[in-house]
Each structure stands twice: as structure tokens, then as C-alpha cells.
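All the exercises in this workshop are built on plain-text protein records. An example says more than a description, so a record of this kind follows:
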Amino acid sequence: MEKTIIRVQGMMYNQCETLVTQAVLKVQGVAAAEAHLERGTVEIQHESDVERNALVAAIQAKGFDAVSE
């Protein structure tokens, strides 16, 4: 498993954390995800073959700006 942290802009409420977490969990190969409103990040545990672009795209599809660190 690998860990990726992605900076997420636009999260303002607890529901935003839920939306981001759920979006990332739908990406095949993701085992766990947790968004952090205060930090403006989402931490993702995933298989090594998961591409960062797929994670960023899943977040952006929910209307948030995402930048892989």
C-alpha cells in the first residue's frame, strides 16, 4: 500500500469532507481515505498502481480544486 496526500481547496463544511472521501473511495485500488477540513487535505491509502491523476480527477469531479503534493 502507498499513501498519497492531496491538497483540496474549497472544502468549507463537514459535508465537504464526506464528499471528498466518498469520491476518492470510488477509485479502484483505494483502500482508505480521510479528508481533513482544517488541513485542506485528503490522505489516501491505495495500491501502487493507482494513478494520482485518477485521484485528483475524482475530487475535481465533485467541484473541488485538488493538487497532488
Q: What stands out?
A: The two ends are 17 Å apart (CA to CA).
